[in-house]
Design brief:
Elements lengths: L2 H17 L22 E6 L7 E5 L5 E5 L5 H7 E5 L7 E6 L4 E6 L6 E6 L15 E7 L12 H16 L19 E3 H17 L4 H17 L11 E3 L15 E2 H17 L5 H16 L16 E2 L18 H9 L7 H8 L10 E2 L2 E2 L32 H18 L16 E4 L2 E4 L8 E2 L1 H5 L6 H14 L1 H4 E2 L2 E2 L3 E2 L4 E2 L5 H15 L2 H7 L2 H9 L8
Helix pairs in contact: 3-4, 3-14, 4-6, 4-14, 5-7, 6-7, 6-15, 8-9, 8-16
């Protein structure tokens, strides 16, 4: 054997030895990867057997929520992927069941009434084969009102008594201990409100007349309030600021520039004081002194000063630091009619008719004349604006049979109220809960804020004061709303000072606040509906009769 053959043999032996070292021969073809589980999709949703998109309202408190998918689910992944939370983000327990061969998961919770919930399914949901859900899923649920009555049924007269008496506690029991004036709201501490105190004075008069408090106690409270206003409270040309410190009488600025006189707030206060002056008509020394002090305050207001250098209009604000910087004219149609009526009625600083015609009425530009829901509206913005326009000036001014060159005011206020009502019944923005027994858009608290709600600024918030204070204009519609607020929402809306300020059933929220300017009109307008008391008192003022006649008003009450 030659050397070459020996060499070849050795190479073959080495090759065979090297191959025997591995247990698996090297692959000789392409490698096939292990299969990856396919993703899957959401197929169908039913809440209580019905599909209605992904937002459900008026849901019962034990709904059945069925979520169906395109494949069989891994049950072990469901607990971590499917959650139910309330609006505050708190998790809610539910029971889980499976249908359609485990391709559908059915959850059944027990929920609170009038609460918003969110059902979320995240992409951590797995199929039985290990696949992922392609897209997350969100379902919104808002539960219905508990249909049970929250309080025993009583007669309508008893219910009106109850609302007046309970709401009066805001002004009488919760009045500021030093000044007796009305706190701005139930969390305001020492801040008292000038206009809201005027409403509160009228409420106290109504309360005395109803026997909720004695005449002596009511007189003592009025003496405290009037004495503080006369001797302690800041005044500017006889007018008061929007807010005061109820302990010291110092200005509590309403805003950076608004740290002086507020003529509209002063007007609401004077409306109340003149009403009280007419009510406390006894010849005893206490009542005589009260009337004299009220006259001092009333005659001290320099209405003509607020013409800003003799213009034919009134201005809302004046500041000792900022003068006329806010520069806001009081122009109609809004809550400001009372300022012009009082200005024309002043014994000491009267304004002429030209200021009313030009400044308030805009020589007719405040007219509307359009119809909404088939109801002609004489004055004001489209669809009437917030309902407090029909309340604040008319706590004392009786609109029934009252007319001038621009409108019949009984017709105006009834039209405004009915348009507001009909808007809520029509509910063009699909706000949850709106209807014939749940209506009333006006200025009020909203969640995390405050706004003047109206048909053209509808954020879904109903304020009880809107419908209740419209009782003289829409008695049937207002009583239906009042019953609903008390009997159906009373567990959420009824408190120690009457109804809380507002609520939202679309994105459920309930105020815990009470505001003087919303509580007062309820008591006063209920009383005007029942007896006309506050209207009769205010309209009996001889100055008011003269002033309103001078402005061109006609009324059997003048």
């Amino acid at each position: 054997m030659n050397k070459f053959n020996i060499y070849i043999g050795l190479c073959l032996l080495l090759t065979l030895f090297a191959c025997s070292k591995g247990s698996t021969p090297a692959p000789t073809g392409p490698v096939t990867p292990a299969p990856v589980p396919g993703s899957f999709s959401f197929n169908a949703l039913k809440v209580n057997g019905t599909f209605n998109g992904f937002n459900y309202v008026n849901v019962n408190n034990t709904p059945v929520i069925k979520l169906s998918f395109s494949t069989v689910l891994d049950r072990n992944s469901v607990a971590g992927a499917v959650t139910l939370k309330n609006k505050a983000g708190a998790a809610v327990n539910f029971t889980t069941a499976y249908e359609n061969g485990d391709s559908s998961v059915v959850i059944t919770p027990t929920l609170d009434y009038i609460t918003k919930y969110s059902v979320d399914v995240n992409t951590g949901l797995k199929s039985k084969s290990g696949g992922d859900l392609q897209s997350a899923l969100n379902v919104q649920l808002t539960t219905a009102i508990n249909p049970a009555d929250k309080f025993p049924i009583i007669s309508d007269n008893e219910l009106l008594d109850l609302i007046q008496k309970q709401t009066l506690k805001y002004f009488y029991d919760f009045g500021h201990p030093t000044s007796g004036l009305a706190r701005e709201r139930n969390t305001s501490g020492d801040i008292v409100t000038t206009g809201g105190s005027g409403f509160g004075i009228m409420a106290i008069v109504a309360g005395i007349n109803r026997g909720f408090i004695s005449r002596a106690d009511g007189l003592a409270r009025l003496q405290k309030m009037v004495g503080f206003l006369k001797n302690n409270a800041a005044k500017f040309h006889g007018a008061f600021p929007h807010w005061l410190n109820g302990a010291t009488g110092a200005v509590q600025p309403f805003s950076t520039l608004d740290n002086g006189a507020d003529l509209i707030e002063t007007s609401f206060l004077m409306q109340g004081l003149l009403t009280a002056r007419q009510y406390f008509n006894g010849q005893g020394a206490d009542e005589t002194a009260l009337r004299a002090d009220i006259n001092t305050l009333w005659n001290g207001v320099e209405w003509d000063w607020f013409r800003q250098n003799g213009q034919n209009t009134l201005y809302w604000h004046w500041s000792p630091n900022n003068a006329w910087a806010i520069n806001m004219k009081i122009t109609g149609w809004n809550e400001g009619l009372i300022a012009y009526v009082l200005g024309a009625s002043s014994n000491t600083h009267a304004i002429p008719k030209a200021v009313y015609d030009n400044g308030w009425a805009g020589n007719g530009s405040m007219r509307n004349g359009a119809s909404y829901y088939g109801i002609p509206l004489p004055l004001g913005p489209p669809q009437g604006g917030p309902l407090f326009f029909a309340h604040y000036s008319f706590l004392g001014i009786n609109p029934n049979g009252l007319s001038d060159a621009y409108a019949d005011y009984g017709v105006q206020n009834k039209a405004h109220s009915l348009i507001n009502y009909n808007y809520c019944v029509a509910n063009p923005n699909n706000k949850n809960g709106y209807g014939a027994s749940c209506w009333g858009l006006t200025a009020s608290d909203i969640e995390n804020g405050y706004t003047a709600s109206s048909p053209t600024n509808d954020v879904g918030v109903i304020a009880p004061t809107a419908a209740i204070a419209s009782l003289p204009y829409t008695p049937t519609e207002s009583m239906a709303a009042l019953r609903f607020f008390y009997y159906k929402l009373g567990d959420k809306m009824w408190g120690q000072y009457g109804f809380y300020d507002a609520f939202n059933l679309t994105d459920p929220w309930f105020a815990t606040s009470t505001l003087a300017i919303d509580q007062g009109p309820q008591i006063v307008m209920i009383e005007n509906y029942r007896s006309g008391l506050l209207w009769n008192l205010f309209m009996s003022c001889p100055e008011i009769k003269t002033g309103m006649k001078n402005l061109g008003f006609n009324s059997p009450n003048l």
